[in-house]
Structures are given as C-alpha cells and as structure tokens.
Amino acid sequence: MTRLFAQYGRPEWYLLALAVVTSLFGRTVALVPPLVLGVAIDAVFVGNTTYTLPLVPAAWLPTTRIEGLWFSVALVVGALVSSVLLTWAQGVGFSLFSNRVQHRVRVDAYEAMQGLDMSFFDDKQTGQVMSILNNDVRNLKSFLNGTVGGVVQLLVTVTAIAGILVYLNAQLALVTLVAVPLLATFTVWFMRTVRPLYRTLRQSVGDLNTRIENNLAGIEVIKTSSTEGFETGRVEDASWASYLRTWAVVKLEYLYQPGMELMAGVAFAVTFVVGGLWLVTGPPGPFTGTLLVGEFVTFLFMTQRFVDPLAGAGRIVNSYENARASAERIFDLSDRPVLVGESDSPVALPRDEVAGRIEYDDVAFGYRTESPVLTGVSFTVEPGETVAFVGPTGAGKSTLAKLLLRLYDVDAGSIRVDGIDVRDLSLVDLRRAVGYVGQDVYLFDGTVRENLQYGAFDASHEEMVAAARAAEAHEFVSRLPDGYDTRIGERGVKLSGGQRQRLSIARAMLQDPAILVLDEATSSVDTETELYIQRALDALTEGRTTVVIAHRLSTVRGADLVLVLDEGGVAEHGTHDELLARPGLYATLWGIQAGDTDGLPGALLERLARRSESSADG
C-alpha cells in the first residue's frame, strides 16, 4: 500500500492534498455547533458564566446575552454552510484522485501483462487476469475514494474531540477516552486475522470469473454436447467456494463491527452516568471540581460524535485489508519477470531492408513443465524460399515457428534472421518482419475495416481493398450489409470459417511482411474454400520467405525444403520428390494420406498408431 501511494499517488499529490485539507477543516468545522451549543446554554440561556470559546480572542466575543444568542446563531449557520462546501470539495478531490490512480494502475498492469512471454499465458487462466485488471483495480479505487477520506476524518475527529473534551473537563474526558486503547487492540487483532482470509477470497473470485469466462467462450460446445447441467454444477461449485470464503470474512466482520460499537457505546454510557451523577449529586468518587450543564451537553454531543468514527474504524480496516490483498495481486502481476524481452542494445531491422534469410542452428527447446520438445534442429532457408514443417502431431512443428517470432526463447542454439540472432533484434522490428496466418483465426469485435487495418493502421482504403482482392475476400465483404464497415462480432462469429481465414490473409498482406508463417492455414475448411484460400496464399507468398506448417502433405509439394520432424528432431529433409523417392517417415505419411499403405514399413505404421493413441489420450 505504501508503494501504491508512492508510485501512483505522488503524481496526483495536489488532489490528495486538496481532499485531505478540506476533509480536515470540514471535520473540524462540524464540531463547532455542539461546542457553541454548550457555551450558549451556560452563558446565554442560564447566564451563570461569561461567553468563552477556545482559540477565539476575548475582544471578538459578545458581552451581553442577546449578543451571545445572535453570535451563536451566526457561528452555527456559518459552520453548517462551511461544512457543506468543504465536504463537496473533499468529495471532488478524493474522487478525482482515486479515479486517476485507478486509470494509471489498470493501464500499467495491462501493459506489464501484455509484455509477458507466452509461458505466462500458458499457465494463467483468463478469468484470473480479468479479475486482477477489473475487480482488484476497482477495490483500490474504492479504498482511495472512500476509505482514505474515512481515515482522515477518523484521525481529525478523534483528535479534535479529545482536545475539546480535555479542554472542557480533563477528568471526565479520561472516562470517555479509556475506550481508545481497547478499541485499538481489538482492531490490531482483527487486521491480523482477516488478512489471510482476504487473500483466499480474492483468489476465489478469480476462479469463479475463470469458470464463467471459459463457459461463455465455449457455449457452442456446451449446447451441442447437452452439458448445460454439468456446467451449471461446475459454476455452482465455484460460486459456493467463493461464498464460503466470503462468509469467512463476513463472520469476522460481524464480530468486529458490533464489538467496536459495543465498546464505544459503553464509553458513552459510562460518560453519561458519571456526568449525570456529577450534576445531580456533585463530583462522584475521586472526581473534583464543578461540571456545568452546558459543558455536560457538549460532552454528550462530542462523545456521540466520538463514538461513530470509532465504530466506523471497522469499515476502514475491512476496506484496507481488502485493498491490500488486491494490491498484492496487482503488483505480483506487474513485477513478474519478463523472460522474453528486449536486448539491452537491440539491433534495428528496418522493414524495407529485410532479405528474409532464416537459420536455425542446433536449436533446443522445452516448455517449463515438459521434457524437451525440440533438440538439435538445424536448417537454412534462403530469401524467397519456402520451407515446410511436417510430421506427426506433437512433433514440434508449431513450436519451431513460435521460436522464430520469439513468443518463446530457445533453451540452446540460436535462430538468425539475415544473420542476426533474433534475441539481439528489436522485438517490434522482428515481429513486423514476420507475418503469421494460423488455423485458429482471431478477429476482434469491430468492423471488417478495423480488423484488416490492424497492425497496418496507416494503410489507405485503396491498399486495404487491394489486399482483400488478393486474398479472395473483397467479393464476400462487398455483399455484407455495410461492406467494410460491417461489424463482425466477437471473434468474427458472424462470418464463416473460410471468410475469417481470408480476412486474416488479407490482414497479413496489408502488413507486407518479408517472412511469412502459415500454420495449418487451410486444414479446417472445405475443398471449395480451400481452393480460394490456396489461391490467396499463392499471391501472399510470392517473393517472400515462407514457413509452412501442414498436416496435408499435398499443400507442401512445391516447397523448396521439407523438414520431417519426429520426436523433437529432424528425421528427414529434402524436396517432396526426394523424400518420396526413399522409404521413410514422409513416404509413410504420404501413403497414409493417399490411402495406400501397401509396402509401407509395418514397424513405422505401428509407431505412428501408438503416437496417435498417445496424443488422443493426452
């Protein structure tokens, strides 16, 4: 919480200062009416004392009872008006301060999250991240807006009232103030007990968000599988777990809040009894001196105002602990180390100077929780050539492409573009030089135009249309209700799979990369749509260095180099014709896809079957 104020509150210090100062004066001014009332009772209505107020020069005070009446009225009205204005200024200050801090925290947390490598997203559930960026950030805003002001009011009110009570009657003040150390001790116990409960509560909220987010994303699968009842049960379990953790906190709150109110109320009752006896029978017990009626009335009013902020300390502590748990999660996200980051002195790779030569030199890689996926992979692709990765499922084909884009970093060896290690290149330059078209196309909720120009924001309308024509997309886009300004829904749900794929190809064309990665770009469409897409891909790959990942071997027949991956390494390499000319894994895969397995090695077929079963089990 110290870091929250130091890092994000400091730039907005003037707003916080405005809120704190106006809150301080507002709470002080609010104590004027009960103080004036007590003085007026003794000096104006009863008339047994002179009119005196603390910190007010005697020359300013009235000398007659009628002057004292109107002076008291003026002070009370002035105090009420001033309190309203100061309260308004306090609210504006805290609101501006909290909302600006919330904005900056959310943006910085998102930026930090966006800069993390893909291994973070492999492990982290979307709902957990959403909970941090939304729920936890809102918790901080609520704390800064309401609770910080509550702390200031509590401190000012308690300090000012304690001073006034001691000024009026130090002996009776001790009776009232004896509750303060008891309340403080009770508060410390509550904070230590509730803190771990809030951590688990924030975690359970994230788990519930994850479950709901997953189900919304997979609603089509749920409906087509008739598993609505099963998923309702899983949401119910996650909601119940959140309820139990919430109840654990609430039970403690229901003990703490009434306990604070009880102790503060007892202090008020004891003050009332002692003061009442003092007026009726004289100083009770060890007490000495006199107590005026006006003083006692002021004491009762002040004590009541003293009780309310002390009883409200529970809400302040509750909000603080909730915000503290949220701040821990936010800064844990912000402080997570970036495993794939910029070099200290990145090498620039201007877009118009990229030749497109790719070299993999003895590359090895394994995901953090798995055994090595790739070992000893080496090959070279000259500018303008096409290399194809083929092989059984799980052989590491897509991983090789992700390493080129530096979505992950190699564990050993190196990958070079135009002779420069990709780890030494600027990430922006590298990823602008490498275009990616995958099987699972992602389109943003927006218009066709916004999705095509994504990553090429300065492209003109004519350039966009030319890219769409080349990608065989212009014709169907023109038939949409609003053409290029038609909204296509989240993930492009209003379009067919083939239409989404052609838009992704057009987007890649508009970005004009020197190197192109095609990851199963035609594997999930029908034959007619595949023809459209293949023609678009032929236009896209012309003159570019291209990496093709494919299960359908018919799509890689024209590749300059085919790498056959198996069990993390390169089992074979060559052109399509060269690989078919000799017995091996490629020839076996080709025979299987062609429906001709006669004469193929039985041991190899058996091994492929086992790999397929293993993949299905996984």
Describe the protein's architecture and organization.
- The protein is α/β, with parallel strands linked by helices and 618 residues long.
- It folds into three domains: 2-334, ABC transporter type 1, transmembrane domain (ABC transporter transmembrane region fold, Up-down Bundle); 353-582, P-loop containing nucleotide triphosphate hydrolases (Rossmann fold); 583-618, no CATH class.
- The chain is 62% helix and 9% strand.
- The chain is built from 22 helices and ten strands.
- Strands 6-7-8-3-9-10 form a six-stranded mixed β-sheet, sandwiched between helices. The chain has a four-stranded antiparallel β-sheet with strand order 2-1-4-5, with helices on one face.
- Strand 1 and strand 2 form a beta hairpin.
- Helix 4 (65-114) packs antiparallel against helix 6 (126-168) and helix 7 (170-177) packs antiparallel against helix 10 (228-281).
- The longest helix is centred in the middle third of the chain and has 54 residues, at 228-281.
- It is elongated, with a radius of gyration of 37 Å.
- The two termini are 44 Å apart.
- The relative contact order is 0.08.
In short:
With 618 residues, the chain is of the alpha/beta class. It contains 22 helices and ten strands. The model is unreliable at 612-618 (pLDDT under 50).
